Amino acid sequence: MLRFLSDKQMVIFDIGSAYTKFGYAGEVTPRGIIRTEIKCSETKELRKIYDYKDAEDLYQLLVDFLHALFFRHVVICPKDARIVVLESPLCTTLFRDTLAKVLFRHFEIGSLMLLPIHLATISTLGVNTALVLDVGYKEATLIPIFEGVSILKAWQALPLGSQIVHENLIKSLKEVSPNVDISEKLVEDIKVRTCFVTTLERSNKLGTPEAPNPPPAVKYPGIKSINIPGEVREKAYEALWERDNDNLSIPTMILDALLQCPIDTRRVLAENILLIGGTTMAKGFMGRLKSELSVLIKSNLYSEKLKIRTFKFHTAPSKPNYTAWLGGAIFGTIDLPLRCLTKENYLKSNRVPDWASLVDNQKEDSLICEI
């Protein structure tokens, strides 16, 4: 059975909150990128997969979504197929277990490999050490990886991503064009085409008497043309940099993570930062992040704690929105039988092994002391 499975090419899925990337192992780009949503078979409404009500609702949504994914997009028979799924560290146990149940019991796949996104991503660089920051749709997550080992005690996460940018942008556009129906797809297209991350110097002056002249307004063509003021274009991404009541933002995630790492790893990690996720593709994002880090490291909060003055960023061989998928495609070319959960083993145990569970982390040869 294992020999039969090894002859079949692995299919790579990266099921994100907003978009799903799919393709085959060994390829340099995904075969396609689609929205992580499906028309519900019961209500006939278009629903996002992650907006489920309970386990039964999630099961049905995943059945409908994966059916469309297998037969309409990837165009393969899922029975006995080998699947790699990229998973986020914030993925709930309910989603993980339900996904495995759907794949093994409904579609009868042959094997499943659940691969951590941050760990898979560094394989695209050919390095073992990196500070991986993933800014996606719902949240920003960061995990330092040193010599191939994730430093989990230093992980960081904040609800900062494209979702909050969309919400602020919709609010601003409704004030400008109250008669225009602004949908999620429309605001995303407006954001990508017209908005940008402003510089730190201009950001500090926004809303003050010394505010600089706003960039020019643009007209977004559609059924009804929408006039987008320059101020709205410039302020769209400011929510990602504003610190909350706990003094946290995307730049502080990097510095706080470095503080929780062993002292001899901090400099190496600071010089190996990798940005992934669609939100990091915004024009001016990396430049603003570098400026924020340079200012914060000299502030009273970090100047005495961190003696780092240089931050260096990697450039992955792919666009940031599918770098994680590319890492999974690289892992899919390697035969890792110990990392794969086969159909036979799943049907016996009816559960997915989890490193956080004591059931899966017991020593095989336990010492028995007799009194």
Q: How would you portray this structure in words?
A:
The radius of gyration is 23 Å and the shape is globular. The protein has helices at 2-6, 55-74, 93-106, 117-121, 162-176, 184-194, 200-205, 230-235, 250-260, 266-270, 285-296, 323-331, 343-349, and strands at 11-15, 19-24, 32-35, 37-39, 46-48, 82-87, 111-116, 130-135, 140-146, 149-150, 156-158, 218-220, 226-228, 273-276, 341-342. A six-stranded mixed beta sheet has the order 3-2-1-6-7-15, with helices on both faces. With 371 residues, the chain is of the alpha+beta class. It contains 13 helices and 15 strands. It is 34% helix and 17% strand.
Overview features:
15 strands; alpha+beta; six-stranded mixed β-sheet; 13 helices; disordered N terminus; disordered C terminus; 17% strand; 371 residues
